[in-house]
Amino acid sequence: MLSLALVTGVGVTATPVQAADSEDFTLGITAAELGVDPEVMRQAVPEMQEEIDEAGSLSASFRQAMIDNPASASGYDDSYWVDFDGTLELTDDGAGMEIVVPGSEIQATTGWWEKFGALVAGGLAGLGFRIVCIAGLTVSGAGVAVIPLVCTPAGGAVAGFMTALITHALPPSDLGSPASIRDMIIGAFVGMALGYLWERYFVGFAKEYLPPAFRKLGIWLGEKVPWLASRFGSAFGGAASDTSDAMIELEDLLSEEIRHWSVEDSQIGAIASYIHPGADPAAWDRLIGARSDKVGVLVANVLNGPDSKRNSTWAGVIDRGRASGKKVLGYVPTGYLGLTGTTTRLGSDDMDDWIAQIEQDVDTWYRLYGDSIGGIFFDEGYNVCGVDNDYANYYEELNRYAKTRHPGAMTVLNPGTVVPQCYEDTADVLMTYESDYAAYYGNNANSALNYKELDWTPQNSSKIWHIIYGVPASEVTRVAATAKDRGAGYLQITDDVLPNPYDTLPSGDYWAAHQNAVSGGSPVVAPVAPFSDTQGPPMQPATNLTVSKVDYTSVSLAWQKSSTQIARYFVRLNGETVASLPGNFHTTTIGGLDPGGNTYTLDVVAQNYYGAVSATSNSVTATTLSLPGGKTIINPKVTHSGGSVTYSADFLAPYSFHRLFVSPSGSGVTCWWITTPGDPFCGHWVIENSTLLSYAGTQVGEWSWSPIAYTPPTVNGYTYSWTVNAADIAGSSDYVSFQGEGYSALTNIYTAK
Question: Would you state the pLDDT for residue 111?
């Protein structure tokens, strides 16, 4: 839409001439050609149609786009605009859009095409200058992060200046007139401003989606506008397509060269910043205030992921981090895809359920925090290829999902240790070391934790991230140099230690030393792999979609797989894609639903390896169960047996944190106080998920605990049971509070006092 608006309204300033040919002109654009999820197309087309309806016609919407466009608004004269009829519709399969303009309505002028030619020539001149600028500054040793922010605005200025110069040089020439000088100056400044905005905010999206659109436009101009041959020569169509291809190839070549240049001397601070901004806002001030070429990536983690509602405190630092030029990544646990027995929030270790939960978390980060999220940090990554590289392919599918649904997203996969080469394309960045200082130099008492080299060579260091904790202040510079020698383009060094080395930020001097130790650079974000231009063989849709289980907040589905080769299945909830499952799966569980009798409609759409989508499967409906008494936690119990105590309760909704607070039998001990309907509850012990801790705070409201024992729960259906050694909680009472937090409303339920 944007590219069509730009071409349609470059600046018609002469009386139009009716085109000789009356053939209707049709432009079809599919989701596969743009490399996007068909759901993106299904969302975009209605928005475009709404703009057209508001403007009154397709032509009027183009005209308004030109008036509002800062690149053309300064000198744009729309008094000679020619209105025309036309339509923009979603294709029948929902995977593309089609623009149709009746041939009788198409009008053009020689002056229009001359101005378009000037725009292309000026753009090529600016692109050439940008390439020369980047090459020159790179050789000079300028910082990699700064080069594009200098050269792209400069190239834009050249493009704007040359476009105006060529336009005014066309007959009848008025070069040297006040109008020509004005337009050249305005063109240079507008080009410079747009170049900066492009590189600063839009380059990730634009490089991914505009090149295919421009290629499509070039082919359309050559093949669908037959009267161009008689007016401008039979070679026009080929020239238009070739020019488009050349511009794309130049940009791709330049991007690749920047990638190679950047890895020569680039090392960026990348921080797993799991510090709650409400508890330590000063730490976030220092993170955000750091130079973005020195600290370019931050990871936000609200509650082992995004939670299900927006947190205003987190939103503040995420927005500020993005505004400061950093990539703020949302934390998403992948649970090793369930291969180690780790379960989803709904208690499943099935791989298809893990994939669905991961993708739901990806979308939730963007739904809650918008474009301030710069990508996804996939934690708990597996590091085995699997049969036919299946496990690596599943992570590659998650990578595609994030980048397709959220253009420009940076992705990180964290196995925390070495991975085989099958994982190279599973994310932009791989975390291949996450351990302590001693292990980094082979001195950990547990040799299994010591640093290991990859047995393959990444294409560049922008692929590797190392985190080293427990580093003495005197060793920061040495560790950074070692990391660079080992090919780590992203680096976090901290003096914090286990059990949580990410809950504090090092002191001012240490933090300054960390920044000084890295050379700086810019995060490298790869586009999603495009689909082939071929549509592939006809597809059969998924059939026999059924509901296999309905719960309080979830529904489980099963379907008959298509008999044709399928890359993935899109699961849709009330018409919106909520999961993308690799083509060898045919079951999944969709969570995050509202309990209490809410009814949902679900269906499945298949996509092949060429990007084409099938017809929709049959639809099914599911109604969630109602919570007993509206409570998400029920049946709290305490059971004594010999020298142990067992605590159990039923958690009917998913939670990120399952906690059990135990009160003391006497007084005079420190407590974490919880407000109850009666007296405040004193929690001196807590079991948080799998760890028993005792309260260590010294003032009211201080969340500080000391670990006592590893106490994983036994989970049977909804029932969570923790058994502890009675000696570890000597002096405790049976007055306890079961608490759930994250992904469902914060809830406490108490036993009798």
Answer: 52
